């Protein structure tokens, strides 16, 4: 089923990239979808912020490396708790292990993909982010999270810590979220309504001190609630 905004409206998207061909290509790709409309296109981070404020898109697709202000700075502005507008962000980059990727996660970005991802993956990611679901390139998820967890240690790593923070059902949701499940998949696994899953998530994020589903997954890896299998070299 196609993911649109919560009330079924067309997903309004801002695309920002300093490379004209990439900017035009991503814009054309998304605009061709019946449920997606590209409402603004920016060539740098400063312009992206101005256009986000004037057009108030549902999703901002941002290049990580841009002049004036990079994608991380833009994401931090758009994702902060008091942002107006607060815009979920999907980061695109050519650098799969760029330090800026970790900055994007910390800034509150909802997703991260490589620019050479298949077109249907990029389209699907925009829909997922608009629907409130975080996304990472599946081929890179384990490497990115494992590297992130090894570089960042923001919370005490104790096996019991989550039990003192979350309810048993919130922990169940977190574990399934860390497996990459959507709200619908989590609801099916726990045999509850999707609205119940959303309620658990809304209560869980402030308890963990995070702003997005993706940050909650990172928190779970940092605290060894879930672990990343060794993928070898």
From TrEMBL:
Keywords: DNA-binding, Phosphoprotein, Transcription, Transcription regulation. The modification 4-aspartylphosphate is found at residue 63. GO terms for molecular function: DNA binding. Coiled coil: none annotated. PANTHER family: TRANSCRIPTIONAL REGULATORY PROTEIN NARL-RELATED, TWO-COMPONENT RESPONSE REGULATOR. Residues 159-224 form the HTH luxR-type domain. SUPFAM superfamilies: C-terminal effector domain of the bipartite response regulators, CheY-like. Residues 12-130 form the Response regulatory domain. This is DNA-binding NarL/FixJ family response regulator. InterPro entries: CheY-like_superfamily, NreC/VraR/RcsB-like_REC, Sig_transdc_resp-reg_C-effctor, Sig_transdc_resp-reg_receiver, Tscrpt_reg_LuxR_C, WalR-like. It comes from Curtobacterium salicis. It comes from the Bacteria.
């Amino acid at each position: 089923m196609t993911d649109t905004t919560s009330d079924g409206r067309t997903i309004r998207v801002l695309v920002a990239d300093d490379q004209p061909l990439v900017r035009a290509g991503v814009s054309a790709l998304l605009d061709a979808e019946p449920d997606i409309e590209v409402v603004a296109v920016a060539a740098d981070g400063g312009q992206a912020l101005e256009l986000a404020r004037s057009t108030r898109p549902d999703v901002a697709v941002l290049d990580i490396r841009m002049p004036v202000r990079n994608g991380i700075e833009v994401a931090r502005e758009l994702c902060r708790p008091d942002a107006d507008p607060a815009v979920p962000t999907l980061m695109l980059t050519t650098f799969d292990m760029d330090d800026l990727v970790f900055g994007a996660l910390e800034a509150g970005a909802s997703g991260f993909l490589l620019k050479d991802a298949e077109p249907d993956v990029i389209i699907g990611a925009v829909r997922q982010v608009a629907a409130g679901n975080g996304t990472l390139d599946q081929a890179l998820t384990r490497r990115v999270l494992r590297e992130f967890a090894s570089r960042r240690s923001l919370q005490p790593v104790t096996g019991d810590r989550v039990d003192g923070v979350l309810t048993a059902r919130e922990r169940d949701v977190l574990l399934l979220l860390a497996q990459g499940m959507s709200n619908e998949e989590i609801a099916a696994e726990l045999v509850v309504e999707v609205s119940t899953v959303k309620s658990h998530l809304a209560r869980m994020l402030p308890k963990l001190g995070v702003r997005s589903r993706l940050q909650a997954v990172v928190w779970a890896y940092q605290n060894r609630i879930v672990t990343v299998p060794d993928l070898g070299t």
